[in-house]
Amino acid sequence: MAEIVTGIKFKVIKLNLVELQAVEGGYAIGICDSCGKPSFDGYYIAVLNSYYCPECFKSWLRRATYFPEDKPIEDRNFNYWKQQLEKVGNL
Questions:
Q1: Which contiguous run of DSSP H or E holds residue 73?
Q2: pLDDT for the residue numbered 44
Q3: Model pTM?
Q4: Which 3 state secondary structure label does DSSP give 64?
Q5: φ, ψ for residue 31 (rounded to 5)?
Q6: Mind listing the pLDDT tens digit for each residue in 3-45?
Q7: Separation in Å, CA 53 to CA 3, 16, 18, 70, 88
Q8: What's the pLDDT score for residue 22?
Q9: Across-strand partners of 45?
Q10: Among candidate residues 24, 6, 73, 18, the one with its CA nearest the CA of residue 42
């Protein structure tokens, strides 16, 4: 089941390929938007509107800088994904 990642300054949802497909549609194949490799488990990063594998997510989180002016876009993306996952009972 998808879960909201807490304890970090960004809005992130940890999910698997089945949950990703529930939001994106059956065509989603779980390709990491950073390294391009397939990943059954990953992280939806709302501020980037991207799906990252666990390794790329950890790397991104170490170097990421939070910009308050990105908050409206991050909130919009996060709320959409949260709502979609709640609709299908995966959050």
A1: helix 71-87
A2: 96
A3: 0.93
A4: coil
A5: -90, 130
A6: 999 999 999 999 999 898 888 876 778 899 999 999 999 999 9
A7: 15, 10, 14, 22, 22
A8: 85
A9: 12, 50
A10: 18
